[in-house]
Design brief:
Two copies of one chain form a homodimer. With about 260 residues, the first copy, chain A, is of the alpha/beta class. In chain A, strands 2-1-5-6-7 form a five-stranded parallel beta sheet, with helices on both faces. The first copy, chain A, has a two-stranded antiparallel sheet with strand order 3-4. In chain A, α8 links the parallel β5 and β6. The first copy, chain A, is globular, with a radius of gyration of 17 Å. Chains A and B meet through α1, α2 and α12 of A and α1, α2 and α12 of B.
């Protein structure tokens, strides 16, 4: 959909890129995007540029597997950091609604002020409940501030979506035995490699992509969802993405030259 | 050399990366690194990661050609923006001394306050004269603010080093018939493609690299310098860098597999 906040038609060839830049700038103004978040945004831009700024078929398959995992879950939670809140606040709320998931704010550089601002920003975009402020649970293996989660949120979840997550956190969450879905444009990152479902795609495309699959699968039976999950191969998805970045070609090997 | 400002030994495997991060953070605190500069820093990190965080032989050859151009020049000028000032202030002063070049501040997002802060920062790192504040010259083909240069600086230069330059500015400078040396970690960027000498290397390695070659060539005769310049092939340098990024291998094709 066209963003009402910026005066650029969706048909503009650089619409997505301009929208992203606009939202990140607004995130800085709102005090929810950090310095590290801006640098991370730049790293993502470079990888997306090399991917051709498109959702690879392998990433679309990962988004479908992610949707199936979230629909099968007893307690799915969507983790939100500063960049995710800035880039896809309404899209996260839509995904939570489509999969009956909780939304929990989790920051690498946690301050009460940023936590509150991000929770407010999500509520302004339609979130009814935002977790993460209680912080009465801990992820083992991380230092105190990084370890904080809500006991009845990520602490209790069986499936967690962590877009743009730090490598240490992604690995520690993976060690907890939860199903971990990561969105990361660098297929060589520790976060992507730690994930059960690594989605190598721009978060601005990936989150609506998962939602679309979740809506499509809303009436599917468990058997169908379980077969989608079983057929997904994380290693293949990472290999396809790395090949697309390195070779700049079609990740299915469709180019015969 | 080990930076006196940070308590990390130069032998640390992540020394260069930590030093870079430290200097960028300090640049934000000092009001000389912009939001766009932080995002650009992230893009550079991603490309440097894919290059293996090393100076390719082709980049070293480009740095030697850049040194020869600067030494042959009647009036060489080193252009400095916010990220360059934050990342390599002392190194730019060293290069200016080794090549008798002027230093000129040129900002994509020009404000008098940032111009003054950057000039002050360079003076604190040993610069005796910093140009760019007069702004009585114009680069044709750019809008008013972007076009500003000093008439007796970049306006009068025959060789210009523009590290981390915007694509529009790099192309407009190239159209002026000046010899343009660009430092850019993205070999596919318009800036790199517009350059007579594109150096695809981290500015934190490239600027000291040029200085080292300039000192090595200090007593060389014009014939030697001119043959170094003549033998350099910009297209080959870009191809080698793109191959290294895309294939992740040795850009000289040394790997037989």
């Amino acid at each position: 959909m066209t963003d009402p906040d910026i005066e650029i038609p969706e048909s503009h060839p650089r619409y997505e890129s301009l929208l992203t830049r606009h939202r990140i700038e607004a995130g800085v103004d709102a005090g929810i995007t950090s310095r590290q978040g801006l640098i991370a945004q730049g790293r993502g831009e470079a990888f997306d540029y090399l991917l051709g700024e498109r959702t690879l078929p392998a990433a679309d398959a990962a988004e479908r597997a992610a949707a199936a995992h979230l629909l099968l879950a007893d307690h799915p939670v969507l983790s939100v950091n500063g960049n995710v809140a800035a880039l896809v606040p309404g899209e996260v709320v839509d995904l939570a609604a489509a999969t009956s998931a909780d939304i929990e704010v989790n920051l690498f550089n946690r301050t009460d002020e940023r936590m509150e601002r991000i929770a407010d920003h999500l509520r302004e975009h339609g979130a009814s409940e935002v977790k993460g402020l209680t912080a009465d649970g801990r992820i083992p293996g991380l230092d105190h501030e990084r370890a904080k989660v809500d006991a009845d949120g990520i602490g209790d979840a069986d499936v967690v979506l962590v877009p743009l997550e730090d490598g240490d956190r992604a690995e520690a969450l993976g060690d907890l035995g939860k199903v971990e879905i990561v969105i990361d444009l660098n297929p060589m990152s520790r976060s992507a490699r730690a994930a059960d479902v690594p989605i190598v795609d721009n978060v601005i495309r990936a989150v609506p992509g998962i939602t679309e699959h979740a809506r499509d699968l809303a009436d599917a039976d468990r058997e169908t969802l379980e077969s989608i999950v079983a057929e997904f191969d994380a290693g293949e998805a990472l290999t396809a993405a790395e090949r697309a970045i390195r070779e700049g070609g079609d990740e299915d090997g469709g180019d015969a030259t």
